[in-house]
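Sanity check. The docking grid for zinc ion depends on where the pocket ends up, so I'm generating a full predicted complex first rather than guessing from homology. Inputs follow.
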Amino acid sequence: MIVTTKDLFKAAYGKYAIGAYNINNLEQCMGLFRGCLASQAPFIIQISKGARSYTNKLMLEGIIRSAEQVFPDAVFAVHLDHGDEETCMDCINSGFYSSVMIDASSKPFEENIAITKRVVDAAHAKGLVVEAELGQLGGVEEHVKVNEADAKLTDPAQAEEFVKRTKVDSLACAIGTSHGAFKFTGSQGLHFDVLEEIQKRLPGFPLVMHGSSSVPEDEVRRINIAGGRLKDAKGVNADEFKRAATLGVTKINIDTDGRLVWCRVHREHFILHPENFDLRPPGKEFMTAYADFIAAKNEKLGSAGQLGAVKAAMGIR
Ligand code: G3H
Ligand code: 13P
Ligand code: ZN
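Predicted complex below; grid placement will be based on this.
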């Protein structure tokens, strides 16, 4: 059943975080639903602007609507990831999305507020929920590259003013994470001090952590053994998710780690089966591996095992 992120955040706040997973195709969608049901977790499906235009924006919508019927026990929200104003408005008017993210974080503070406010007004008028972003994460997203040194942590006083003026429903904060597979050259922990200060100023308000993939060393090693050429890099320590959740982080975004699973499965498959040219055998292996990966992430997030409680809280049978 499709619900709003607001409903999921109400159930999760202070206790655990909901996994927000980006999907682009049918195989990711099947693996995601299977993994979330196996781990009994509520979840958020994220669709980026790039994913919408990969084939046609209606394709993913059709796949997700079918998944809702194939997996009637699943409880999830459908969210636009890193939207610009035009894409947000398109999603708000589509009647499909539960929430949109307006990402004007690269703009000056006042401009970010003005753009976010326009999206919030349009979304709230139709019962949709909005996530905005303040601060600047490192890494690569939608072809924009921010160097480690140029990343800016969110200023807690600005976060408070931003939320009060825009009336946004959740806020993505830069607290030391980074997008993509090449996050940090050395190890880096989350800035819990910044998170604590934001929570003090915005008690009960849902926060979002982007760029939260762990880039497991073993996954990168296996990809490279199978012919890949990925650089060594450190990701986010998933053992920090639960502490972040107690400080108000209710949504944690993961995309890159899933892409690494896809890459490893396919590279290893074609090395082990050089005679194969059929897409279905590696596709099946990927769906199983992706479902296992999702279930393991949900354990780290604390969302595993919460499906029954969420359904009870929302009166879903
Ligand atoms: O943060 C961005 C997400 O990883 C989506 O990536 O824009 O390549 O689909 P994408
Ligand atoms: P990763 O690149 O760390 O998976 O982050 C994904 C993300 O933030 C999507 O919005
Ligand atoms: Zn992101």
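Relevant for the grid: Residues 152 and 221 are 31 Å apart (CA to CA).
Also worth noting: The domain at 5-314 is CATH 3.20.20.70 (TIM Barrel).
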